[in-house]
Each structure stands twice: as C-alpha cells, then as structure tokens.
Amino acid sequence: MSAVSDAGHDRRECASGLARAFGFLGKRWNGLLISVLIEGPASYAELKRAVPGISDSMLSERLAELTGAGLFERTVDAGPPVAVSYRLTPAGEALAPALEALRAWADDNLTREGCAGA
Prior knowledge:
- It is a single chain.
- By secondary structure, this protein is mainly alpha-helical.
- It has a single domain, classed as Winged helix-like DNA-binding domain superfamily/Winged helix DNA-binding domain (Arc Repressor Mutant, subunit A, Orthogonal Bundle), CATH 1.10.10.10.
- The protein is built from six helices and three strands.
- The protein has a three-stranded antiparallel beta sheet with strand order 1-3-2.
- The relative contact order is 0.13.
C-alpha cells in the first residue's frame, strides 16, 4: 500500500486538521475544561473547583479562548446576584466521543503517575 493517495497527495502530509486539533486541544487545560462541560453547564466557580491547579487568570484566558473558538457559550443571568455560566455549543458537544475515546485509551495504556488530578 502506497503512502500516496489516489489524489496524488502524500498521506503523511494530509494531517493538517489533526495538527490544528492537537494544537488547540493540546493546550494545557482546554481538554479538561471541555470534558467538565460535557457533564452539563457550569459556573466559573464550578469549573475552578473541577480543574484543580488552574489559576484564575488561566481559567479566564482559556474560557475566553474556548468561547471565541465557538466551543463554549457564555450566559449571563442578570440576577441579583449576577450569574455567569458556560455550556458547550454543538461544536463543543461534537468533541465528546473523541474525548471519551482518549480517556478510555489513557485508562488502558497510561499509568496514573504524573497525571494532574489522578
């Protein structure tokens, strides 16, 4: 079997989508934050508790990034008190099967040593 596809492209060079996905999801905390919201909407405080070790500034940065990328939706309820919550958009929800597959693979193939929150 040749590494060159019928279209004449080298298959080893056709993984740009995967490179973009890992570049984004591979940023520290992004995958974990997405996995928390797979369980349902959460407030800033709930996200902070669910991801031990993340600083306030990093959480704010990642939430803005994930919202800007169209994976999270931010909702502000006027209150009182004012309440901000985050939920996955359909694009974010589409990641659930991939993240579940990665979790299952990690459980089967990686030790828990050195894992944050393990």
